[in-house]
Specification:
The chain has about 90 residues and is an all-alpha fold. The chain has one domain. The protein contains two helices and no strands.
Length: about 90
Amino acid sequence: MHSELYVLGNWRHHGDDRGELSKTWLVDPFSSAILFPDWLERQDDPWMWPMREGYDPLVVFRPSTWLLNEGWKKAGVISYRETPGSQRG
């Protein structure tokens, strides 16, 4: 399992994506997942998700080391649909 998936998709693991409003979200907008540029489904898009008016995103810095910036991709990119702890196909 990717450690990135655990951090970015932890809300799915705990079922927080099944609330009335949150079940319509693709990622947790209250985490850095909304600004993560390397989701499988968003590889060709310069911006991630549309943000609602008044949304004040977290300050997120891109990693500066090769391992955290590029090296992890050798294990395969991750999908926002994946749940941490689930088996990858």
